[in-house]
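Appendix B, example 12.
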Amino acid sequence: MATGGLRSVNAIAGKVVIVADNGTKLELKVTPASKILALGVLGGTTALAAQIGGPAMVEYDTESRALLAIDTRQEGPARGVADTVSNATLAGTLKGVDTVSGTVTVVAEDGAEIVLRATSTSTVMIGGMATGHGVLAVKLGSRVVVDYDARTNTLVRISA
C-alpha cells in the first residue's frame, strides 16, 4: 500500500502514475480486477482522470505492478504533484463539437462523457497528419484518442 498523489492516467494503455509520499514514482497497470474509487464512487479510468493532482491511496502487486485498488477520497492537493501538468489520455467516440463555447464532447470507452475545452494550441490529427482545420475536421461519431489536461479539461490533442 502507498499514499501519494495521482500524477497521470492513460486509459488507452491502462496505466496510472502515482508519486508516493516518499517521492517514488509508481507506474501501475490497470487490470479488469482493479478497484477504482474516484471520490468514493466506483468507476473507471475516465472518472479517475478528473482527480489528477489530488491525493490517492493505492494497493498494488509489488512484483507485477498491477493496480489492485485506488481511492482518491482524501482531501486537498497531493504533495509534489499539485503544480505538475496533469496529462490524461482516453479513447472514445466524438459526440459533439460546440463552436460557440469552444468545446468537444467525447464518450469514453467506459461510457463516461467528458467535455473538453479546445484552444488555439489544441492539435488535431487525422490519419496521423496534423490538420489546420481544427476540431471541425473530425466527423461526429469518429473513434478518437484525446490527450488533455485533466485539471483544466483542456484539449491538448485529438487524433482520429
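DSSP finds one helix and 13 strands in the chain. Residues 76-83 have pLDDT under 50 and may be disordered.
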